Amino acid sequence: MANLKDVHGYVDSHADDFIQRLSEAVAIPSVSTDPSRRGDVHRMALWLENQLKRYGVQTRAVPLGQQEVEGKILEYPPAILGRIGDDSKKKTILIYGHFDVQPAEKSDGWDTEPFELHVDRESGKMFGRGSTDDKGPVLGWLNVLEAHHALRIELPVNLRFCFEGLEEDGSQGLDDLIVTETSKGPQGWFHGVDCVCISDNYWLNTRTPCLTYGLRGIAYYQIIVSGPGSDLHSGMGGAVYEPMTTLISLMGKLVSVEGRILIPGVYDGISVADSSELQKYQDLDYSVADLEKVAGGPISLSDDKATVLMGRTREPSLSLHGIEGAYSGAGGKTVIPATVSGKFSLRLVPPQTPDDITKKVVSFIEDEFAKLKTKLKMKVEFVGGGKPWVADTNHWSYEAAKRATETVWGKTPNYTREGGSIPVTLTFADNLGVNVLLLPMGRADDGAHSTNEKLDISNFLNGVCSSLLSNLSSFTQNDRAPQTKLLGTYLYEVANINSDK
């Protein structure tokens, strides 16, 4: 890893430039779920593609289709594919990330403007929508590319890139793109890929880096109950069946207050953790206090660390999300809604699949509705979902990431499963037939999707193979100590491991 010393020197002298580039990215409000911001997502795609081209990356912007919104046809933002290096003697790593973000308004409770990166040098934190999810990690790879390009140092591996602008809106069209490119064989963009690396998740806590080898899947539903031809005055109450009453009754039958899913058959086939697996959870650097810190209150379902961790990552869960069609404004409105819909989702674990779970969910709700014997109408709709994923941590990619983490942070990483979902992870694993590594940059308190989303400067710069800015005096010695940083070091460790073999 002799070249890393020169790379570090370059990054040390350009750290402010890297933060400025993140500021430029955050300033583009690429909110994919808001049709009025669709132009900004396209602008972000073009900005990112141009950045890649600056460092010798061959790119391709791939259209992903169209959608109709309020009578208008809108183009989905393109996926940005990239490639650099075609040395058959080197491993080829595919990097995935996304450049779209969640909605954000200062009135939501932000302390600063969400689309203006606020760099707090005293605390060492950078606040802005997309800073940690997922623009910071994506730009980490750009910074690695820039350092090697500027110094004319050859990358130790071949790289392929797949960046999308619809992750926050269901990754429309991405699965089809991956399947299509894979089916092309040697002419496909992903041909020859040896492993996939994704940085779109977070540490378990704020202390210890982690490598993530599992994600829960998801199945999302809504129950729609209707009856009256229009909203009714509540003076009709007591004389008619009310959709809201029925909906709440049905939603109340789905899950207990202790989090136990009440739908028959949901837990079928899920293995029971043995003593060895339970010990792995106990050995992780994590506590119930860590969970409650992130949750913002003492609300854990258990005081046992292993139980809490398994409940968050290894076991399925069901969450109720909201009700549409009901009055929710200020003051009182004495109305009986004509139609209401309740939304909920299940987080899935192996061997569960959305198809199998949907059959059980629909059957259960229909049976429970029939028992109510109302004159109302009810239907259950499957909104979308994705399968769970678990990877082999004995793979050389995980070993390289472990070595890099130990070099950078001076700690052995936690090996974790996540409670959330990144459906494209399984798409890559199934279609490319390769190992997928989740190598997070952010910490547990980053607040992705929330107000005041942030990314620690130390994580951002460590993630791009750099020492910290010399004038950030508040950092601890541990923050300053690493001389080789995570993403770049990982690439070199991949090359070293495979050359040894």
Terminal CA distance reads 17 Å
Strand content: 15-25%
**What global shape is seen?**
globular
CATH class of the largest domain: Alpha Beta
Number of domains: 2
Care to count the β-strands?
20
CATH topology-level fold name of the largest domain: Aminopeptidase
Strand order of the largest sheet: 1-4-8-5-9-19
Structural class by secondary-structure content: alpha+beta
What is the helix content?
25-40%
- Give the name of the CATH architecture of the largest domain: 3-Layer(aba) Sandwich
Instruction: Let me know the largest β-sheet.
Output: 6 strands, mixed
Q: pLDDT average, as an integer?
A: 92
Would you kindly provide a written description of the structure presented here, covering whatever features stand out?
It is a single chain. The protein is α+β, with helices and mostly antiparallel strands and 501 residues long. It has 2 domains: 3-215 and 388-500, Zn peptidases (Aminopeptidase), CATH 3.40.630.10; 217-270 and 315-384, Alpha-Beta Plaits. It is 34% helix and 21% strand. It has 15 helices and 20 strands. It has helices at 3-13, 15-26, 38-54, 135-151, 174-183, 243-251, 275-283, 288-295, 305-313, 354-372, 396-409, 424-432, 457-462, 477-480, 486-500, and strands at 58-62, 66-69, 72-75, 79-84, 92-98, 118-120, 125-127, 158-164, 195-198, 210-215, 217-226, 232-233, 317-324, 335-336, 339-348, 377-386, 389-390, 414-418, 435-438, 454-456. The protein has a 6-stranded mixed beta sheet with strand order 1-4-8-5-9-19, sandwiched between helices. It has a 4-stranded antiparallel beta sheet with strand order 13-15-11-16. It has a 3-stranded antiparallel beta sheet with strand order 6-7-20. A hairpin with a 4-residue loop joins strand 6 and strand 7. Helix 1 (3-13) packs across helix 4 (135-151) and helix 2 packs across helix 4 (135-151). It is globular and about 80 Å long. Pfam families: M20_dimer, Peptidase_M20. Keywords: Hydrolase, Metal-binding, Protease. Belongs to the peptidase M20A family.
